[in-house]
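@channel sequence for tomorrow's demo:
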Amino acid sequence: MLSSDRLLIQILLLGLLGACLWVLAPFASVLFWAAVLAFASWPLMRHLTRWLDGRESLAAGILTVGWMVLVAVPLVLLGFDLADYIRALNTLIRDYQVAGLPDLPGWLVELPLVGPWLAEAWQTLDKEGTAFFVRVRPYLGEMGNWLLVHSARAGAGLLELSLSLVLVFFFYRDGPRLAGFVRGILQRLIGPQAAGHYLALIAGTIQRVVNGVIGTAAAQGLLALIGLLIAGVPGALMLGMLTFGLSLIPAGPPLVWIPAAAWLAWQEDYGYAIFLGIWGTFVISGVDNFLKPYLISRGGNLPVVVVLLGVFGGILAFGFMGLFLGPTLLAVAYSLLNDWVQDGGPRLRGTPASRDQAGRP
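structure tokens (generated this afternoon):
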């Protein structure tokens, strides 16, 4: 009878846990990003709380407002830039319809093999004039629908980001209590020693991924912005933010600075085109070759390849959340297998190996 009552209580508890997960499922990504943001900046929260004489709510409020300003200001500026360049693009298309296409640069016409073909194709396109725009109008409509759909998704993403910036306040304020709650659960499940080991492993992995991946992306975006401003490329802020986003995928930043350098060459501004090509090759893209491995491997004994495979594989498997889930899963699995192979380290409570080790003199 006692075992039946215990089984019934366990079933009820599992049902309660499932219902709670069902309620929180729509906010999973929001909660995840708020938790990652609070965790990544927790040293700043700790120092600010100490500076404010232990007033956690005030420190959490200051950091939350700071994050809102840091995220909102670039997004507002980006929105103004996009509106200006869309209007400029419409004006440019109307001018091309009336006055025709501009002449190709002389250096492009003089290219061996492809130069004469490009000149002939450009002249044909210029002669067609309005007929060309009539033919491409259906494709422009499809592109507009595609942009509309992705704009709606981007709007939903911005809404989630805004909500996560609000929730990060509560993660800041209640962070120690939440960490103690998670630690208590793990201690009941796998024992105190293993819980401390794997909590430290997960925390260190996420911290290194934040420092390595996000830090490198921020550095590449800032360096791209500096180079584009020096070269006088229009829309430098928008292209810098695009570089930051593309830095999260392999060989992403060249998709920004190579077309920008080509545009400068098209404008016959060869000096700045060469400068941007050198800057992009050795500075923007070069940062990824040494800064990311250094930041990821610093302070940990995990191979860099494990974390990098977790980053890229996690993005493919889970979307953008996989940026942190992927390396965390691989790091925990690697540590478990490493402990098992070496026959040492913290073990799960109740396993045969831990009982054998406990019985040794």
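heads up for whoever presents: The first helix runs from residue 2 to 24.
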